[in-house]
Amino acid sequence: MSYQIEILQPQDIHSFRDLIKVFQEVFDMEYRDTPSESYLKTLLQKDDFLVLVATSGDKIVGGLTVYILNSYYTTRRTAYIYDVGVSVEHQRKGIGRLLLSALIKHCNERNFECAYVEAESTDHEALAFYRSTSANNELAAVHFTYYM
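Predicted structure:
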């Protein structure tokens, strides 16, 4: 089966919605409401937000979202990979690797300093996946959240 990777543009709202449905399925988050189309379009228009999708035919089967961060230590930017997900029926077919490779290529072409992703220490599948990729460093950290 052939998969295509593309970066979504502001007009690709329906593809973004389809990716969010994939994330909801994979991350067991079906209870959440999806924001409005105007909100999603605003996100896609931002220079500091990026969405890559994997398609098979005309179906979104996976993707990743990225927040682009500026630094005060360097003028080079950092890509913070927020979500990576592939629909259950398409997992273990190399789609996650294709998505990461496309993102790394995109970041290299734009002289980013690095890209990083967090995974929960109890998410053994995610840890195994990221460990199997070409990551240069694994850092153990504790994440604190402040809900408003």
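Summary: The domain at 4-131 is CATH 3.40.630.30 (Aminopeptidase).
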